């Protein structure tokens, strides 16, 4: 396989997590008697543009199906983040009722609902029918398609050019980034702004966040790599922020490279130097990651085996949890079941491990000794939500960045 951005050969091995099914392909009861498709989950690095990427084994349609189960609105932390972003962007680029916000990967309307509440016209673009339907039911005009140059051209012909394009936590999910970014450029007004949020590769490596690797995440991004990719597509980063979401993410602000509409912030150069100092554009940065993955996995598995016989459950049927569970070979003998707040996941089963998923009401009845918080990035929200387990001496466990019992 060659680099999906620049077509150079991929010579640097980064991570090999064996094989697993797509992390968001939850099973219904009638599917338990049928086989699942397991794909290799390997990640390599392009030493020309420094894009870290999975090897291709399946189409995007296999991952983002019509009954996709991830709905953004079930996390209180994520809704607060979305509202803060909307408020900030309305002020920063002076949005009003004559503006247009077009969100790519708008999911269930978790973000656009805040722009809508301020009477700012908006359009959502979301390829998964299940979430697009919920967004439409909120009164948000939603186009149920994958985004790219073709769709952008159609909207441009309809004079629906955007003042702001939020494309948050989607760039990593895009198999053809050049087509995607060509679409962003077409859809942006000359003085328009696009923002991209994505987990920061630097944090992934330094904190061994290997469970954020899964098939739906085609790419693992840094400022250095995204600058290379944007430049090819005549776009430019004019500001960047380090934000806490997903264990440490970047928010990059982008405009058309030839527009000169926004002054380049000093934060861009500061972060660029930080990544250079860490060696993100050198082979050495990637060499020992597989050993760190195995150490983290082994520590968690060893602890679960030591407490086997206790009542142990998981919380959060998250994609990252499925990566960890499948790589570690954890099954229902070590994790009795997983609880999730989303009714779209309840009464289904985790892909691969086939561990059952229930609603929260089962916790007080079961009285677990330990609750493994699988979406560790939400550990504060979840431990507050489930604080009542302390009434019977229950404890929480997270595995990343290191094993922690509290």
Walk me through what this model shows.
By secondary structure, this protein is of the alpha/beta class. The chain has a domain at 289-405: NAD(P)-binding Rossmann-like Domain (Rossmann fold). It is built from 13 helices and 17 strands. The strands form 4 sheets. Strands 14-13-12-15-16-17 form a 6-stranded mixed β-sheet, covered by helices on one side. A 4-stranded antiparallel β-sheet has the order 1-2-3-9. It has a 4-stranded mixed β-sheet with strand order 7-8-11-10. A hairpin with a 5-residue loop joins strand 16 and strand 17 (404-405). The model has no long low-confidence stretch (mean pLDDT 95).
Oligomer: single chain
Overall CATH class of the domain at 289-405: Alpha Beta
What's the shape?
Answer: globular
Which whole number gives the mean pLDDT? 95
Q: Terminal Cα separation, in Å?
A: 44 Å
| Low-confidence runs | none
Give a concise summary.
This protein has 406 residues and is of the alpha/beta class. Helix content is 31%, strand content 21%. It has a six-stranded mixed β-sheet, with helices on one face. A four-stranded antiparallel β-sheet has the order 1-2-3-9.
């Amino acid at each position: 396989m060659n680099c999906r951005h620049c077509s150079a050969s991929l010579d640097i091995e980064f991570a090999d997590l064996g094989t697993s099914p797509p992390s968001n392909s939850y099973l219904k009861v009638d599917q338990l008697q049928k086989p699942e498709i397991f794909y290799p989950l390997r990640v390599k690095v392009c030493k020309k543009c420094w894009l870290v990427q999975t090897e291709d084994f399946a189409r995007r349609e296999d991952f983002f199906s019509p009954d996709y189960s991830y709905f953004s609105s079930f996390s209180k932390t994520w809704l607060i983040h979305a509202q803060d972003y909307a408020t900030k962007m309305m002020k920063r680029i002076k949005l009003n009722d004559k503006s247009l916000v077009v969100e790519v990967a708008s999911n269930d309307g978790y973000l656009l609902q805040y722009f809508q509440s301020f009477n700012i016209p908006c359009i959502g673009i979301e390829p998964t029918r299940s979430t697009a339907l919920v967004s439409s039911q909120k009164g948000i005009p939603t186009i149920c398609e994958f985004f790219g140059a073709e769709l952008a051209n159609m909207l441009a012909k309809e004079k629906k050019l955007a003042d702001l394009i939020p494309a948050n936590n989607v760039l990593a999910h895009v198999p053809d980034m050049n087509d995607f970014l060509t679409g962003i450029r077409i859809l942006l007004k000359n003085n328009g702004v696009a923002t991209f949020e994505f987990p920061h590769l630097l944090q992934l490596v330094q904190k061994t966040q290997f469970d954020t690797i899964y098939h739906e995440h085609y790419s693992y991004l840094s400022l250095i790599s995204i600058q290379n990719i944007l430049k090819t597509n005549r776009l430019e980063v004019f500001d960047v922020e380090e934000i806490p979401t997903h264990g440490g993410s970047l928010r990059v602000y982008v405009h058309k490279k030839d527009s000169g509409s926004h002054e380049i912030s000093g934060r861009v150069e500061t972060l660029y130097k930080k990544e250079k100092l860490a060696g993100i554009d050198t082979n050495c940065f990637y060499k020992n990651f597989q050993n760190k993955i195995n150490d983290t996995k082994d520590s968690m598995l060893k602890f679960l085996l030591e407490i086997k016989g206790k009542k142990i459950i998981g919380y959060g049927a998250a994609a990252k949890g499925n990566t960890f569970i499948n790589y570690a070979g954890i099954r229902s003998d070590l994790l009795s079941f997983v609880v999730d707040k989303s009714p779209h996941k309840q009464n289904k089963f985790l892909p691969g491990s086939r561990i059952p998923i229930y609603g929260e009401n089962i916790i007080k009845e079961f009285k677990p000794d330990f609750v493994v918080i699988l979406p560790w990035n939400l550990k504060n929200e979840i431990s507050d939500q489930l604080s009542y387990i302390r009434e019977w001496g229950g404890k929480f466990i997270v595995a990343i960045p290191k094993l922690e019992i509290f």
